[in-house]
Amino acid sequence: MTLAALTALGRRPVWVRWGLLGAGLLTALALPWLLYPPVATDILCWGLFAVAVDLLLGYTGLLSFGHAAFWGTATYTTGVIAIHTGVPFYLAVLGGALMAALLALPIGYLSVCRSGIYFAMVTLAFAQMLYFAANQWRSVTGGENGLQDIPRSLAGVDLSNAFFYYYAALPLILLGLAFAWRTVHSPFGRIIVAIRENTPRVRALGYPADRYKLVVFVVSASLSGLAGGVHAVNHGFASLQEVYWTTSGTVVVMTILGGIGTLWGSLVGAALIVRLQDWLSTSGFDEVGLATGAVFILVVLLFRRGMWGTVAHALRRRTARPAAEETGPVGDVNPDSDREQELRSIG
């Protein structure tokens, strides 16, 4: 049996995929009934932000510590558009996502030629440059005071109630998640996974690896901007905290907690961290970072693939075992030849 056949045995059945999708949609619809609506909206925003980071970290193998630049740029852009033009918040949020994508082009072009810790440090340096610019450009960003009173405008609809705003913003988040899922489950997604596994071989097969890295970097930044814009309108302000390096660190922690390379895991990790921070802050506990770090260490020690990743891996193994027994014993497996065949079949 070939390595590709073994991989196929571990794939989820179609009914499992549709079941997960249905459960996710029902959870999204019920969330503001179960939690304080602004907290529920924060879970959606940070969940999409973590999914965007997972496109780079989990599927392309690039660890970015600079995604706060795109999240923060979108929050400020959305705020400026909403305050000075009064357009529906949908247009303001999309404007913020577009600005994040435009910013990602030069940053990505200068960053993707590096990898590993060098890529992480370059993106962090660009994010800190943007933080300094936001702090100094007080006429636009408000400096340390930030942008305040960002309106929730939508023709004919009163969105002053956070409960109604949640359902108004939900389609934007779902579109962003659907776009991320489609990106991963496409020929393009197979190429970026191949780049993660063996970049020199991808280049040897004739694919411009750096160009693909740049495209996924821009896609990740635009989804981060979409989440940041919804977050800014949800809270009605944009501050320097949104472009600070700790924001990048927080979303990376969310992605790792849930399980990198899973998409669903990013949503789980975001829900855990946002809910934990809200519960600790409302209970009067000041050392939120200490508790979050303890949870991170515990999950890393107990769940090597993250929470969702560990559960999904266990289910795949249980599903694959009966199938393997039906197909008979496994013969010799040549990983190199199978991987090369998979790379040649891309596109």
Write a concise synopsis of the structure shown.
The chain is mainly α. The protein is built from 16 helices and 2 strands.
Give descriptors for this structure:
ABC transporter involved in vitamin B12 uptake, BtuC; disordered N terminus; two-stranded antiparallel ribbon; 75% helix; mainly alpha
Query: Helical percent range?
Result: over 70%
The profile of the biggest β sheet is: 2 strands, antiparallel
What is the strand tally? 2
Low-confidence stretches: 1-10, 327-340
Radius of gyration: 21 Å
The CATH top-level class label? Mainly Alpha
CATH architecture: Orthogonal Bundle
Structural class: mainly alpha
Shape: globular
**CATH topology-level fold name:** ABC transporter involved in vitamin B12 uptake, BtuC
The sequence of SSEs as H and E is: HHHHHHHEHHHHEHHHHH
Individual helix count: 16
Strand content: under 5%
Distance between the termini: 24 Å
Average pLDDT taken over every residue = 84
Main β-sheet, spatial strand arrangement: 1-2
Number of domains: 1
Describe the structure.
- It contains 16 helices and two strands.
- Helix 3 crosses helix 12 (about 245-260) and helix 4 packs antiparallel against helix 5 (about 90-110).
- The two termini are about 25 Å apart.
- The chain is globular, with a radius of gyration of 21 Å.
- It has helices at about 5-10, 15-35, 35-55, 70-85, 90-110, 115-135, 140, 160-185, 185-195, 200-205, 210-235, 245-260, 265-280, 290-300, 305-325, 335-345; strands at about 145-150, 235-240.
- It has a single domain (about 5-345), classed as ABC transporter involved in vitamin B12 uptake, BtuC (Orthogonal Bundle).
